[in-house]
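In this section we walk through a basic example: taking a raw amino acid sequence and producing a predicted 3D structure, encoded as discrete structure tokens. The instruction is simple. Fold the sequence below.
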Amino acid sequence: MSWVDSLQKAIDFIEEHLLEDITIEQIAKEANASMYQFQRAFSILTDSTVGDYVRRRRLTLAAHELTKSDVKVIDIAYKYGYDTPEAFTKAFRRQHDLSPSEARKYSGKLQSYNRLVIQVSLKGVDPMQYRIVEQEAFQIVGIRRRFSIENEENNREIPKMWDEINGQGTDQVLFSLNNGPVKGVLGVCADHQESKSVEYWIAAAHEGDVPEEFESLEVPKSKWAIFEVHGPMPDSMQNVWKQIYSEWFPSSGYQHAGTPELEVYSDDDPFSPDLYSEIWIPIK
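The resulting token sequence is shown next.
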């Protein structure tokens, strides 16, 4: 089964169990992927978290049922996963910009999110600049934190971690320590395959003793696909990630090796159109 087929199988599983209390762990198993890798691929390809997709689909189906049946609002609320009519009404209004009772009276427009079908582009209209290298194991030193995947805490908290590190000047300390084989300050996702959390590092490749204020991690010997990123943050980085998942992985024959992946940042102006960064993905 191809990578795209696996991802679509997981989405079909979501749809088949949309009214049940399913977890990202169960969904990821359908794609034969770790929780983190599935969540990351899904959000990159759809510009939506798994939780947001489930919520939007449930509220879409709830709106259809309101307009086509006489089922009580409170019963529809419970059916689609809301503990109280008030919580259902608040979520319904946020998506549709009208209340359930107004929807039943056809007094406004409804916002419909249709069942998702993954499509990928294999045309490669925009060329991707990358190279394949083999790199011996190396040490990184920096700040490590662990974030939950199940409640998608990682999507919210990792940007806050960067703001904190940059605000404290820790990024400049890491630049000064950077004497290892990868040049720049690194954002490192250490995905533990069976874990419900992800370990995230802001670090630098460093040869030598570990400074007291930092922790260390050995990044294993790997074959890497290194993608060039040209342009300002965060859009340029996000655009290359989308190309990697929608074009490169489906057509290259490679798979993610499951070991830590890196985003490599320079000390240049992050908003410069000439900014150069990299994405390092371990492959097999």
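Looking at the output, two observations stand out. The first strand starts at residue 130 and ends at 135. The mean pLDDT is 92. In the next section we compare this with other chains.
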